[in-house]
Amino acid sequence: MARSSCVNALVLVVCFHAWTRDWNLQFISAVGKPRLLHTWTRQSCPVKRRLFNMVRGESDEVAELAPSWEELQAELQKQQTSEEKTFRQELADGRGPPSAMAKLRIFDKTSKEAEYVTLYRDSASWCPYCHKVWVLLEEKQIPYKVEKINMNCYGDKPDSFRQIQPSGTLPAAIIGDTVLQSSDAIIQKLLGMPGSSPEIDATINPFDDPRANGLLALDDQLGGAWLAWLRRGRGDGTSFQRLLQKVEEALASDDSGPYFLGERFSLVDIMYLPYFERAVASLVYFKGFNIRDPARYPAINAWLDAMETRPSVRATKSDYYTHSHDLPPQIGGCGSEPLGARVREEVNGDAWRLPLKSDMTEPDWGWISPAAARREAAERLSHNGMAVARFAARGASLPGFPPVMAELSDPRASPAEEWLGMLDMLLRHVASLLLAGDAVAADLDDDSSAQRAEAVAAVKKFAISLSNRQRDELAKCLDYLQRRVGVPRDMSLPAARRFRAELGKVIGVLRR
Questions:
Q1: Closest Cα partner for 413 from 390, 380, 389?
Q2: What is the C-alpha separation between 191 and 182, in angstroms, rounded?
Q3: Which residues pair with 63 in a beta bridge?
Q4: 478-511, pLDDT tens digit by residue?
C-alpha cells in the first residue's frame, strides 16, 4: 500500500530538524500534509478519519477533532506579541535576541562579517566549555556562524569536523584562517578581537584587575571539587563546600555590585557560569544540597540573579532536568544520595504535573510569563509538528543499535510509521491545549472556560474512539517525547514545563 494512502494526503519531501535528544539531526522523510477538516472553534460535528495501520493492515476509524497546524498557527498569531511574530525571520537573519537555535549571529553587522568566525559547538547545548565561548561571543557581539556537532555520548561526528579537530572534542572554532581546538584558545583569541564597542571589550577583559587570576584559579578548584563529589556515591562534599564558601566571601568582598569584580561584568563571571549552573542543578538533584539558598549563600544567589538578567545567560540557560540527565553520560555517572530523593521526584515529573505548583525547588524564570511560555511552546511545536511526531513515534519502536551512552538519546532508532497519523493528531490537540483559555487558569488545571473545556473534550472524544492497544502505544510515544524535551535547545524552562504538563494531561486521558 502506498504511503500516501496511509495519510490520505499529498506526499511531500520535507527536510526536518528532528526534535530529539540526539539533538538537531537532520531527517529527510516523506510525510503527509494534514487536511483542513474544521475551524479553530471546532463547532462542526466530529469527523471520522480512517487511518491505515501499515504494519498490521488494520483499518481504524478515529474521531478527528484537532485543529489543523495551519489553524493553530493562525490562532497563535492572534495571541503573539509583535516581537514574537518576528522571531523566525530574525532567527534566520542572525538578528534579534540570542537563541539556542541560532546558526548565524550578525548583531548590527552583516552576514559576510560573520564568515570570519565559525563556532563548532554541541548540538544539544550540554557542553560547559562550549557554553562559555557562546556567552562571550554574545556579550562582545562578535558576528559568528554556528556548526552544531554531536557529543560522543549521543552521536557520531562528521568527517568534515574530524578533519579540523582530529580528537573530536568540543568546542572548536575557525577564526580567519586559524583553527582553534580548545575553549581556552578560542577565548584568548576572542578577547583580543573588537566587539560591539571598545568600552565593552575593555570591561570584559579582566586582566587589568589583580583579583582576576586568583578568582579564575578558585573556579578551577571549585569545578574539580564539584565533579569529585558528584561522581561519588556517598560523601558530605566537605571540600566543595569549603571552596564554595570562599566563592561566597569573594563575591561579598566588593559591595559595589553583584559580580566577581563588583559592578563590572567580566570574563571571570563567564568562566564561572557553566560549571556553576550545572553544580546548582546536579547537587540538589543527586545530593540534596541546595546552593540556591539565599539565607546560606546570599552573595552567590545575588550573583546568580544578576547573571540571569543578561540576555546571553537567559538564552543559554538550561534546567535541572536536562542537566541532571545530560551529566551522567558526560562524566561517567553521578552518585545519588537519599537526601536528593524528594528533589529527584520533583524534577523528574512532579514539577510538570498539573496543576503547576509555585513552590518548586528549581527557581522559576520570572522573566517569562505563563502566557508567553505557552505561546513559545505552541510555536516550537507547530513549527515542527510532523518532525516531532516522527520523533515521538520512536517510543513505539525498538531501540537503535548500537546504543549510545546518553540515557535518553537514541540516534539510531527509527519511528514506528504506523502511529504517525494519530500522533500528528494528538500533538495538534496538545498545541490546542497550550493556546486555549487563560494561561494562569490553565496552569492551575482549570478547564472551566469555554475554549479550554472544548479543547479537553476533543481530546477525550479522540481517546474514546481508540482501541486499548492504540491508547497504550500512543501514550508510550507521548511519554517518550515528554522526557526528551531539552532546555535550552528546544525551548525555555517555562515553555518546556507547560509543554511537558499538557503532554502529561493527554497521556492521562489515554491511560484512563
A1: 390
A2: 14
A3: 48
A4: 999 999 999 999 999 999 999 999 999 999 999 9
Look at residue 108 and give its three-state secondary structure.
coil
For residue 260, give every residue at least 6 positions away whose Cβ sits within 8 Å of its Cβ, in sequence order, or none: 211, 215, 250, 251, 254, 266, 268, 269, 272, 303
- Cell (9 digits) for 330: 558526560
Of the candidates 261, 136, 276, the one whose C-alpha atom is nearest the C-alpha of residue 207 is 261
Residue with cell 540534596: 288
Beta strands 144-149 and 11-17, pairing class: unpaired
Q: Is the pTM of this model over 0.85?
A: yes
DSSP 3-state of 170: coil
pLDDT band with cut points at 50, 70 and 90 for residue 43: very low
Which letter, b or e, does each residue of 368-386 get, where b requires 16 or more Cβ atoms within 10 Å of its Cβ? bebbbbbbbbbbbbbbbbb
Q: Quick one: cell of 430?
A: 496538545
How far out from the chain centre does Cα 372 lie?
Answer: 16
- Quote the pLDDT of residue 61: 64
Nearest to 320 by CA among 288, 295, 296, 297: 288
Q: What is the secondary structure of 258-271 as a DSSP string?
A: SBTBBTB--HHHHH
| Phi and psi angles of residue 429, each rounded to the nearest 5 degrees, phi first | -65, -40
Maximum C-alpha span of the chain? 74
